[in-house]
Amino acid sequence: MELQQLRYFVAAADLRNFTRAAERCGVAQPSLSQQIAKLEQSLGKTLLDRSGRRVALTDAGEEFYERAVKILSLVDEAERVGSGAVERPRLRVGAIPTIAPYLLPPVLKEFSAKNAAAEVSVVEDLTAEIVSGCIAGDLDVGIVALPIDDAPLHVEQLFREELLVALPARHPLAKKNRVTAAELAREPFVLLSEAHCLGEQIVSYCRQRECPPRVHCRSGQLLTVQELVGLGYGLSFVPEMARATDRSKLRVYRSLAGAKPMRTVAMIWHRFRVQQPTVAAFRETLKKSRTTSVANEK
Amino acid sequence: MELQQLRYFVAAADLRNFTRAAERCGVAQPSLSQQIAKLEQSLGKTLLDRSGRRVALTDAGEEFYERAVKILSLVDEAERVGSGAVERPRLRVGAIPTIAPYLLPPVLKEFSAKNAAAEVSVVEDLTAEIVSGCIAGDLDVGIVALPIDDAPLHVEQLFREELLVALPARHPLAKKNRVTAAELAREPFVLLSEAHCLGEQIVSYCRQRECPPRVHCRSGQLLTVQELVGLGYGLSFVPEMARATDRSKLRVYRSLAGAKPMRTVAMIWHRFRVQQPTVAAFRETLKKSRTTSVANEK
DNA sequence: TACTATCGATAGGCGTTTCCTATGGAACTG
DNA sequence: CAGTTCCATAGGAAACGCCTATCGATAGTA
Question: What angle do CA A88, A93, A98 make, to 5 degrees?
């Protein structure tokens, strides 16, 4: 057994695709196939089922995957002995753009107060990137919105929050306490780009309720969406946490009557990767801080 | 970093000698030197100090050694996924010949009752072999007599026991309850081969008290020594646990007056190696069983 | 049913790596 | 001070991993 074989196998198991796994490992696909075959031969068991179009883990493969990930994470850690990074613990957090600026700052502040020595880095990117970062070991923990269904990830729900209707302050509907879905039917919308999971979630929510929004314009940033709403370009849906930081009087936020659109915020990390104690400390901080701050909001 | 480099490094660190490490790894010494140099280069730090005659671990080397051993033990475990040995836990115990037959059977019986699925193997050999087996990972746990001073081993004392004077039943000294060292001065002795730590311990005990024994004959087995004593070939020292199983009326055992010779029995295992839960269970069984059985003897 | 795209396995040549033997130089030992 | 032990270096041979090209199989589509 060699480390490269473990790396190739884990990549193939994660991506369920030899070609893309080879790409990620920076080698040609036959090399990866060859090494995985060699690994299986040395173990005397098939680890991956290539019969179908998609690659799947066999039972022995599942067993082995867990150990392989553990080994590779320890190797990662051991390699940092040289750079003196062992004494200086490291925390790499990923979060999606519709969560990061609202949720992270207070949590990171509290965390750094207790873990002054830690070297913290934050990655802000779309869900797919955060997920693959956690799987590949580039990130220690990710903060995203559900659903997440990647097998090797441990998903821990933090809280659910409502998506509020954002209106220009002078909009007729702003006078009401609650807004109905029907009332939104003919309104122009300013939506978040569908690259964001939040943007996509809102569109599919509207489709389900058979009131496809008349999209007036789209933006890639929640803050921009809020500004455009304030300028009267249209309505939008905005998560509670983004309302909390909005001090402008140009916009008001209203609950939707009936089944409210919600999103669930969760933290994710690799189920088998061995993590530094610092990472567990951050997860605790995040979990605790959110419970209290959610309680405060209510 | 490659696994082979870790294997070479750990071997060199364990044996504190490149030449013998290479031998253990089944390669020529320059290959091992080369790979270790490469590992150090990739980490950017020196792991082994070769300035003196003996190889010594640097500070970074100590750090790295711990992780390397952990990784290699996980690799060992992962390699057993193939042979289905993961479902069937494994226990490999080593013990020295002057302990094994007296101490192990009841402990193994109790252990197997609780861990029926476990595949137990017992190795009976001299201290040096048990020690190197534990260091090399061929044994999960060893049972030996102190002193043991190999750095990577965790040593846990189990109990101390007296070495009794074994006499032929008809010997004049058998009439006394206690025997003095002076009285042994002119007696012929039947001793255990010095290859055994017990044999060596007894000789050095006698030398310290300036009553070098007149060795009549030596044997490689404690049981044989007892038989020879029974036949009147001479006196000997025998640990308490070997007396307990001696049902013959040909021999009697007496305490020595004054500072009694004692030996300390301990279990040892590799400080950093990751062990299956089964091994911890065995250690607990051994620890508990010995406390009670020692209490019973007193 | 046939066509096409996707995907992993196989074949053969190339370059790198690791390993070996032989030898050199430094550090303890008698 | 000679002898021994032990790690490092040098250079050639064997082995290994990787690459490109190509094949066969599977699954979706006309």
Answer: 155
